[in-house]
Amino acid sequence: MRKFILIVLLPLLTAAAALAFYILYYNPSAGNQRTRMVIQFIRRPQDHQNWSTPAGQRCGDAPFSMPTSGFIGYLWNDTFKPGHPHEGIDIFAGTDPGVTPIYATYDGYLTREADWKSTVIIRIPSDPLHPGTQIWTYYTHMADADGNDLITANFPPGTSEVFVKAGTLLGYQGNYSGTAGNPVGVHLHFSIVKDDGTGRYTNEYEIQNTLDPSPYFGLNLNADNDPVLPLVCGN
After folding, report:
1. Which of 31, 139, 210, 212 sits most deeply, having the most CB atoms within 10 A of its CB?
2. Where are the alpha helices (DSSP H) in 133-228?
3. Quick one: 47 exposed, middle or buried, by C-beta within 10 A (0-12, 13-18, 19+)?
4. Do the beta carbons of residue 222 and residue 214 sit within 8 Å?
5. What is the distance of C-alpha 121 from the center of its chain?
6. CB under 8 Å to 121, separation ≥6 — which residues?
7. Class level of CATH domain 2-223
8. What distance in Å separates the CA atoms of residue 157 and residue 144, rounded to the nearest whole number?
9. What whole-number distance in Å separates Cα of residue 113 and Cα of residue 177?
């Protein structure tokens, strides 16, 4: 009986741990509608499918297509714990790890550093909005809670400068936090990273090294603008 109880409770405890991470890490103030909606979506995604944006969607003439399906719950420059504004957007699948695919948003050259368990970065030689300027697109959390990667076999650790077209399958949404056994909610974190001027990407963990993704997707993805969720093209 004890073993049966543990089997039943373990998935619930894992989900609770993921929710606790978001409640503690992100700022769930009374006015933070995004946090409340993220929690609602993670708990009962089947009740909120109209909140989900489909993979491959492109708004108008925006250059980037949506990299994965799910609820865009956290935005660029969102309010996190003090001193840590959000460098990109978080898209929540509402599925288990390894189920929801992630695709390249734009043509470029993919690198996966040798020690990256859940991350790839794609170099775009010419920014479609600022031709002649090099930028990078960054995709992470593509591993399960224990750090087993969910990146496609085409891009093993140590991959460097492999050309990929927009729409290329990169991997699947996961819940790896960077620490094994301490999962986050299943999602993709996506950001647009500046070049350092020598042909390398800058540190994605600093928001000043990233770009507001709003004009690239044709969506209001800047938390400073306090957009109404769920996000839809044209709003």
Report:
1. 139
2. 214-217
3. exposed
4. yes
5. 12
6. 110, 111, 112, 136, 137, 138, 139, 193, 201
7. mainly beta
8. 16
9. 17
Q: Give the global pTM.
A: 0.88
* Region of residue 114 (left: phi > 0; alpha: psi -120 to 50; beta: else): alpha
DSSP state of 28: -
- Provide the residue type at 169 as one letter: L
- Token pair, residue 151, equals 């990146």
Domain ranges of the chain: 2-223
Q: Please say whether the beta carbons of 120 and 67 come within 8 A.
A: no
SS3 content of the chain, % helix, strand, coil (to 5): 20, 25, 55
Q: Please tell me whether residue 190 adopts helix, strand or coil conformation.
A: strand
Per residue in 115-150, pLDDT (tens digit) is: 999 999 999 999 999 999 999 999 999 999 999 999
Q: In sequence order, what are the residues at sequence separation of 6 or more whose Cβ sits closer than 8 angstroms to the Cβ of residue 199? A: 134
Structure tokens at 30: 């009374």
